[in-house]
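quick one before i forget lol
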Amino acid sequence: MAEKIPTRSVTTTQEKSVTEERVREEEKQFRAAPKLDKSPLHGLWALTNRDLVKWYKNPIQLIISLIQPIVWLGLFGKALNFGSFISSSVPPSQQAAVYERFFGVSSYFSFLSVGMLSFIILFTAAFSGMSVVWDRRFGFLNKALSTPVGRGAIVIAKILQGVIRSLIQAAIVLIIAVALGMETSHLSVVTILGGFTVLFLMSFGLSSLFVMLALRSSDWQTQMAIINLLNLPLLFASNAILPVTIMPNWLQTVVKFNPVSYANDATRQLLIGSTQHLAPLWMDFGVLIGFAGVLAVISIVMSWRLLSK
């Protein structure tokens, strides 16, 4: 006679089998590799914020970067008092017209103050490429290239950290300029937003340029030499410090090919209502959009070819 297996034993065996199967499935899911995020923007903010943290946690660096434009505003802007020259040779009734003719505004200080916004943008953007050099030298760039983050995202992150730093410092310089006597009759929410849109485009283009030049460099001295080679010609071959009308003809031609000149022209029209125009406002925006877009694309394309471990 066949032996009967108790029903309770069969049920217990089945439950144990189901439990073991469930545990194996959970372990399999736990040990499975996570799905990689391969989107173009993956890791963009993390890389951008990494550079920003090093900047805003070191306030001395911010203060030092603001000293030079403040010196230009407080010493050069006030010491180079064109009013004394004009008042000695022009009747008081005609002095305002002379200022308008040469500077497009009622004072040289207001003219220079807006030029200093481009000054701080130019010099801050120039050092965005140094971050690439140091990351390569200390091995962080190799680690970033080993992650799923795209090379284009690495480049854009370097550009964005330069842009954010530039705009914050430009806002501080603008506040200081207003406190020192810059004309404010044309300042409004719309003109300030328009002016900082211009500065954003200028900073994005210049940051793209200097990051692009630093993609294969591991020598900080070479990068510093490039910065010094480009910064001063871009500054002085523009209308940042002096009006185009008093420059020699050959330099006026150079100024028209300098994107910094169009940024100065647009910000002066927006922030201080300058009557001296290098170009219409729509053309200034068009030049800066093209400048920023072309250099950003070139930087990303070069990162695909040149950025390697």
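fyi The chain has a mean pLDDT of 81.
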